Input
Amino acid sequence: MMGVGQTDASADNDEPAEAPMNDRTCIVTRVSGTPETLIRFVAGPDGTIYPDLKRKLPGRGCWVSISRAAVDKAVAKKLFARALKADVKADADLGETVDRLLAADLAGMMNLARKAGQFVIGSMKVENAVRGGAAHAVFHSQDAAADGVRKIDQARKAWFLGTGAETEIPVFKPFSGLQMEALMGQNAFIHAAVLAGQAGVGVVKRAKLLELYRIGELPARRADTTDR
Output
């Protein structure tokens, strides 16, 4: 579903102050955000920390920036216990678990979009959708041949220059072929395009979220925070 973003040097050396429990503030960076920029985590009955991507699980929660680097640091520094003021445990692979859940959510929405006719697969269909202005985003398998990607990129460039649009059609490469087979079965693809519609919008939203999680840098820690 890309490397982890580099952490800020000051954040590596300092410990964040405790976050107010009802405040949507990242427990790593102490930067406030919205549910769209933070991931909620809760402690289960056994004291294990679980990601709550839908923000619906009961119990006391805390928030971490949508960044693999931030989640990994929260685990390494044992910041969940500090934020929740409880003897809780975060598994060492929590960052990977979040990635897997985000990837599964994206794949599920892709399947819904395909059923709704808002997700087309195949290089020719994708190129036609791009040239015709119907494509809202393009997806490639990480294993896609360079020639196939290049042809679709040329179509994207031609559409962009020909229409005078402000931005090019975005491109995502969230999965390898093996990952797609595991997540999507017979719906796996090499090239795909998202079309207009509610499900298509959902695909693009989730693709951006996964990309942000994987490559997003750890924000600088808030300067006015005092360690305790």
Observations:
- Residues 72 and 95 are 6 Å apart (CA to CA).
